[in-house]
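name: query_chain
kind: protein
chains: 1
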Amino acid sequence: MRPLLCLALAAMCIAQAATAQELGPPPVFAFPETAPDLASDMARIELGQLLFYDPVLSGNRNISCATCHHPRLGTADAVSLGIGEGGIGLGPERIADPTNHPEQRIPRNAPGLWNLGAAEFQVMFHDGRLEADATAPYGMRTPLGGEMLAGFDSVLSAQAMFPVLSSHEMAGHYSENEVSEAVRLSRINTADGAWERIAARVAAIPAYAALFAQVQPGEAIKFTDISNVIADFIAFEWRADNSAFDQFMRGEAQLAPAAERGLTLFYGKAGCASCHAGWFQTDHSFHAIAMPQIGPGKAAPFEGRVLDEGRMRVTGDPDDAYAFRTPSLRNVTLTAPYGHSGAYATLDGVIRHHLDPVASLYAYDPAQAMLPVLDAAQDWAVLENAAELARIAAANSQPPNALSDEEIADLIAFLEALSDPAERLGVPEAVPSGLPAQR
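structure:
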């Protein structure tokens, strides 16, 4: 089939399917600019690469960004809910450190990092607690509110604020190091606060001091400088826009027959594009789909129960209860498990959940999760709580649908066509701190 005809037929097919299902307009077919081409500033990117893989940013100098977002694991960690502080190893092999046992699992599934440098990604985290907002201090709405720090280049840079402050992720248990101690005392963006202490660590390493002097001569190293170059690295390293789908839509290649049937289903009968819209297959919005809740959840300590009410924790609006951000489906075959809690280990499982979320919630089999071994009493607390299950079910906004096994297989074939496991610089052999970079 000639490329232009192939593209025209694909556009017509998707447009007709979308109209028939009243899913709104089909995706824009002009190939978009995704992430900035930063190759002209490789010094910043290479500096960001080193910091991304360097455990020096964590309170106990034992966890890097890559611990939960490793390219070998699809830029995530390949488990439902990871172990941060108090863990040893990587991904499914990560275990509890018997000398510094984890207090709990990380409450939510680690998302992939693909295409986060694209301009359209203006909302971060499963609940959207960080997002671009021109009316907010420095153009971003965050849990810090009026205490937001100046200097972040983007929401991608600003998201680095949070893992380094979390006792379960990177900061460490209360008062066991100078960073976690500052967090415990609520000294975050103050003089000698947590971020300043992290920046001072980096500045004290001669190699980092020299590299920063290259990219910002005459300036002291601030936490925002660290997060900005890490964001530059992420945008460059994991720009993934040359999948079979991209090539097909540019008229450069054909999809396999099963993938093309799946494309028609995705934008038509299956209704996937009602939320997974646009070039990156996300509307960047929030939806409640009765996703099973496992793990410790995100309730405040004083509440004394296990739950995760999603977007409502950010907005305070009851209509946002149990709603979570629509993930992009780029490289989705590489980023299992799925859902904000990682409840489903396979694409087949999570697709079947979407077909009838409430029935799937009540029939959920915990064997579908992938949890590192940890004695955690909270793992199944919500699933054993009839009242909480009823609240999750009542918030569901996804109507039932029906697909055959063959149609589900075709959908998966289309999702496989969204794969472009891009990687440019890879994992460095060593980092300036001298600490081990997880390979």
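note: DSSP finds 15 helices and seven strands in the chain.
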